[in-house]
Amino acid sequence: MIPVLAACRRHSPVLRAATLGVAVFVLAACHAGSADPAAPDRAGMDSSRVVAGGLVEPVSEERVIIPQISGRLARVAIAEGDVVSAGQLIAEIENADLRADMAAAAAEVDLRQAELDRLRHGARAEEIAEATAGLAAAESAERLAEAAQRRDQPLLQRKLISQSRWDQSRAELEMATAERQRAAAALRLFQAGARIEDIHAGEARLAAAVASRERASAQFGKSQIRSPIDGVVLKRDLREGETAVALSPVPLARIGDTSQLRVRADIDELDIARVRVGQTVDVRSDAFAGQSFPGSVIHVSQRMGRRNLSSGDPAEKQDAKILEALILLEGHPDLPVGLRVDVFIETTRAPD
Question: Which residues contact 229 (CB under 8 A, 6 or more apart)?
């Protein structure tokens, strides 16, 4: 460029003027070429509205259903387009072993409950009656042994019985006394009932059994996959016989409530001050040429983030900051979930 300017000084004024004009044009072109290709050209933009890109989504957002445990899918009860309700069983992983664990845990709870009830209620009347009869029999046997020893004592003194016979009589009396004491203790135990610490121990055993039953039930529940919402099956990724992997990036299905649709729009950071809840919106798509779908802004995010949409243009800035806005579409437009759309937000009219 410097040689061109120098040449202007060596020629006529007319030639110098023409040459300077060419130089100014070249400089302007160079400056335009050095600008950021991703920056929007706002010189001719309509200041009455904000234009942004967005994606159509269900009003519930798209729910991605991923199993919590791994296993072979024994049953898949849904197909794409099926209407499902919240809590509906949509698939089941093979779970015979989990079902058996749950039954065993339930039986353990019943056993521990029966033990605790027995401790709390104490002995039955029949058990107390039996213990009373046992004590009476032991007392009678003790009296007989005492009488036998009283008879044998004078005989021993006159040496009419042997010392061994006397020792046997004395041992029989001691045994009868011990049996009477045992029967009396058993009767007192039945009458007193369980100790408080025994009841607490029984309660702890029951609580542990209940926890084991709940754990087994929860694990079994994870094998039964249910819909979290009312909606429509947007896509089914796995079929019966295939293996589901816990927390895998490949989901079982995707479900959404399409009774209403909304658009999640990326608002450029230079436009965020102009977007408010309640503003009217026109949504358009190249797939539906000549049609416009009205809506309104229902939510504006409070946090900046990365762009959700990509145009595929290599010159587009991928690190550009945007603010998400949600637009609720009026009526029931027949738009597929995930459709890329253009959003035109009317900013001149103040929201109600």
Answer: 60, 63, 86, 255, 256, 257
Query: Strand 243-244 vs strand 261-268: parallel, antiparallel, or unpaired?
Result: unpaired
pLDDT tens digits along 61-97: 999 999 999 999 999 999 999 999 999 999 999 999 9
Q: How many CB atoms lie within 10 A of CB 147?
A: 11
Whole-angstrom distance, CA of residue 190 vs CA of residue 131? 8
Is there a domain that residue 40 lies in?
no
**Digit-coded pLDDT (tens) for 251-295:** 999 999 999 999 999 999 999 999 999 999 999 999 999 999 999
Q: Which residues pair with 5 in a beta bridge?
A: none
Other C-beta atoms closer than 10 Å to the C-beta of 263 total 26
Q: How many Å separate Cα 261 from the centre of its chain? A: 25
Helix axes 196-222, 96-121, angle to 10 degrees: 160
Q: Mark whether 200 and 235 lie in a shared domain.
A: no
Same domain for 270 and 327: yes
Which range marks the domain in which residue 88 is found?
68-94+223-252
Three-state SS at 329:
strand
Give yes or no: residues 136 and 233 share one domain. no
